[in-house]
Design brief:
There is one protein chain. Helix 3 runs parallel beside helix 5 (171-200) and helix 10 (277-289) packs antiparallel against helix 11 (296-326). The chain has one domain. The protein has a two-stranded antiparallel sheet with strand order 1-2. A hairpin with an 8-residue loop joins strand 1 (2-9) and strand 2. Helices cover 65% and strands 5% of the residues. The chain is mostly helical and 339 residues long. Keywords: Lipid biosynthesis, Lipid metabolism, Membrane, Phospholipid biosynthesis, Phospholipid metabolism, Transferase, Transmembrane, Transmembrane helix. The chain crosses the membrane at residues 103-123, 174-196, 208-232, 244-263, 275-292, 298-319. GO terms for molecular function: ethanolaminephosphotransferase activity. Pathway: Phospholipid metabolism. Pfam families: CDP-OH_P_transf.
Length: 339
């Protein structure tokens, strides 16, 4: 199983803490001869690091304001990296419950991943239209819950999550219900309410329906393309490579989110189509046409690697450009010395 471990590094006060994620490849198979489980210490470390990363993510803004070093680059670092971290939070919890008869199916988890992703981008869609970023409590609740789940797993073992806990209600059902409930009862209503307030106060930054919904075009198309791939895949790609597929989706989504964040910070118009949709559509067309029936796994690996490198390149370039524009250094309070 793939367990990304999270911790946060911060130098100075110029920028928010940057989440650094280390992946430990650990095999856990209940059907294996020795039936070896993930060491309890790993669960403890994951729980502590997740809580530390979440805590530092919450205080970075206070640190920047205390040192008078708040910049748009800090917001991009903070929320841009959070957009990429969404996929890790969902997949690591999936690793806790597994995918057996008492676990979560890979397709249900895929849909839950999209619930989390759309909950994230909804807040930035709201800021794009209202100019105000409201962060609901759903994210905070989920992070504390995830950390507790990891620590409890270290104490009672993964088998404890397989047994029903109330009226044959499984923990996987509780996990699913919590994610959907937070999205439908906290995130979505608050975003719509804040949008309505801006509309009533005549403070909306965009007024046509097309311009208002523009930031959601690329995420919706990404969902359509990836979901179509799942249904037409000759080798049932999601069942064979669930984590890789989730990571590919999360990486493309993170790039879409980062570009939206840049647009809302600079008060520029959001582009309707993200370029990363093109290679995904190209790979999907190859899969549908049957042109390379035995190369679907290779195509997924190549696509994921390409999107990852492209997203990292985008981040490096944008950070460099913003640093020069604001005459600052990333991860440092010291100003660049003039040549």
């Amino acid at each position: 199983l793939l367990f990304p471990l999270s911790f946060t590094v911060q130098r100075g006060g110029q920028q928010p803490p940057v989440p650094v994620r280390h992946a430990s490849l650990l095999e856990h198979d209940s059907e294996a001869p020795d039936h070896q489980h993930v060491p309890n210490g790993v669960w403890v470390i994951v729980g502590l690091l997740n809580f530390i990363a979440y805590t530092l993510d919450g205080v970075d803004g206070k640190q920047a304001r205390r040192t008078n070093s708040s910049t748009p680059l800090g917001e991009l670092f903070d929320h841009g990296l959070d957009s990429w971290a969404c996929v890790y939070f969902v997949v690591t919890v999936y690793s806790t419950f597994g995918r057996g008869s008492t676990g979560v199916s890979v397709f249900v988890l895929y849909l839950l991943l999209w619930v989390v992703l759309f909950s994230f981008i909804l807040s930035h869609w709201e800021k794009y239209n209202t100019g105000i970023l409201f962060l609901p409590w759903g994210y905070d609740i989920s992070q504390v819950t995830i950390s507790i789940v990891y620590i409890v797993t270290a104490i009672v073992g993964v088998e404890a999550w397989y047994a029903p806990f109330l009226f044959n209600f499984l923990y996987r059902d509780l996990f699913t219900t919590m994610i959907i409930a937070c999205a439908l009862t906290v995130t979505l209503p608050m975003s719509l309410y804040n949008f309505y307030k801006a509309y009533k106060n005549n403070t909306l930054k965009h007024h046509s329906v097309y311009e208002i919904m523009l930031p959601l075009v690329s995420p919706v198309l990404l969902f359509v393309l990836c979901t179509t791939w799942i249904f037409v895949s000759p080798m049932d790609i999601l069942e064979v490579h669930p984590r890789l597929f989730y990571f590919m989706v999360g990486t493309a989504f993170a790039n879409i989110s980062c570009q939206l964040i840049v647009c809302q910070m600079s008060s520029t118009r959001c582009q309707p189509l993200n370029w990363m949709l093109l290679p995904i559509a190209l790979v999907l067309s190859v899969v549908v046409s049957g042109f390379a029936p035995n190369s679907e796994t290779l195509l997924l690996y190549l696509l994921t690697a390409f999107l990852t490198l492209a997203h990292i390149h985008y981040g490096v370039v944008v950070v460099s450009q913003l640093s020069r524009h604001f005459n600052i250094r990333p991860f440092s309070l010291k100003k660049p010395t003039p040549d």
